[in-house]
Amino acid sequence: MSTFNVPAKEEVSTNNQAIFEQLEKAVGFVPNLFATYAYSENALKNYLDFSNAKTSLKAKEKEVVNLAVSQVNNCDYCLAAHTAIGKMNGFNDSQILELRSGRASFDTKLDALARLAKNITENRGATDSEVLENYFNAGWTRENLVDTIALVGDKTISNYLNNTTRIPVDFPSAPSLEEVFV
Questions:
Q1: Were 75 and a residue from 91, 153, 159, 166 both cysteine, which residue would form a disulfide, CB within 3.0 to 4.6 Å?
Q2: Among the listed residues 57, 55, 31, the one whose alpha carbon sits nearest the alpha carbon of residue 44
Q3: How many CB atoms lie within 10 A of CB 108?
Q4: Residue pair 112/137 in contact by the 8 Å Cβ criterion
């Protein structure tokens, strides 16, 4: 049940209206979560700038992190959105479900990334040394580590916004892991 209405374009500031127009051109619509950021004069722009900033992680690698973090944080909105984006980045349904569980048996390097993202999120940054050692042994760098931690923070912000506001999901629903692995 939603506790917040998603603001319409005419209900947000002029600056946010311009961002809505950019999103409509780029994505085809304004995702409800982004519209919810627009309750703040600055949060939508700040979030998009942070989320779209340069990183050492490729788009597919970012989706590994987004899926693992969103699962740990139990964010239905972000799981739905990143399931769709994960598919656009070449993952199939079974791979997406596995990534959500914090694993990637189909790729050793992505497995280390998924396990790290899950571990960081579950332990609030107090990463297990074995998980971190495995990450580096899989070929990731310290730059990748810093960028991964930044991405965990990025996704956690959206997870928390959704989990607090309970805005309607405007992407196809992602199946729950319990439904799939029962």
A1: 159
A2: 31
A3: 13
A4: yes
Per-residue pLDDT of the chain (182 residues; tens, 9 = 90+): 556 899 999 999 999 999 999 999 999 999 999 999 999 999 999 999 999 999 999 999 999 999 999 999 999 999 999 999 999 999 999 999 999 999 999 999 999 999 999 999 999 999 999 999 999 999 999 999 999 999 999 999 999 999 999 999 999 999 988 765 54
Name the CA dihedral angle for 108, 92, 162, 144, rounded to a multiple of 10 degrees. 30
* Tokens 């199946």 found at: 175
User: pTM of this prediction?
Assistant: 0.94
Q: Name the amino acid, one letter, at 36.
A: T
Backbone angles phi, psi at 167, to 5 degrees: -70, 155
